[in-house]
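User: Here's a chain of 301 residues. Predict its fold as tokens.
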Amino acid sequence: MTVSLHDRFRGLMAGIAVGDAVGRPVEGSRAVSDLYVDDLFSQSARPLYSDDTVMSMALAESLLECDGFDGEDMATRFAEAWSDEPHRGYGRNVVKVFSAVKRGIDWKTAAERQFGGAGSYGNGGAMRVAPVALWAYPDFEEVKRLAGDTARVTHTHPVGVEGAVIQAVAAHRALRDHFDRDRLLADLDSLARTDEFRAKLEALSRALERGDDEYARLHLGCWVAADKSVLTALYCFLLGSDFEDTIRRALFIGGDTDTIAAMAGALAGARWGIGSIPRTWVVEGFGKMVRLADRLFERTP
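Assistant: Prediction complete.
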């Protein structure tokens, strides 16, 4: 069945929210049972999203309202979103950036101060970056450039930036009519600059050959560092047979489940479209993410 580009845009944005909300209640767990998802959606209340979705929304809104990247505007939107709803699960270190921005400190200075000036290497830049692939579509070079720019608003360590670029490139390739796994992996091989991601790409190749989720958990990682989660989400997507299988695989691996499932969900939604998301899997923020996707689609060439 042919999936329209519009449906792929919608699938990417909705996929972030669904993966995030499904993964949030079991963050830190390991080997989550398939029964968990069924039980979750049998309840009357919609599953709630975390900071992954909040920041994806804010990033998309900033690009749309500013007609491109504006670091000050994006940092301000992130800080305001945190201030309005601090309970959404923000990491302790990024909260320091937002607090500094709220006090009037320049966003670049605030981001660069983290970890004694080394900058954050967490997956926060990657978890929210997928809308960049929609904004820049179909310009591959702009996807790479913009992904790095948006990451540096909070994550300046090379590993944190590279994780965001990898996720954005994967989303860009997933949007294409004829998804080419080998081409994507070749892209990533050429993009990898850090020793951390070079090593993890080798581990990804072995994990894909084995098709062993436990091996992937041990050798790719499943925690908040970008090099221990971004390629894990990609692994789940590349081995997933559809959207649902991708998400269930991310939950089984465990660890930072909301972020890994959000990143994997973005890729799966981009590849298979919004129609691939089970009808019952409606979570908080689903409609807003679809509306943002529509606005981003309106500006495609």
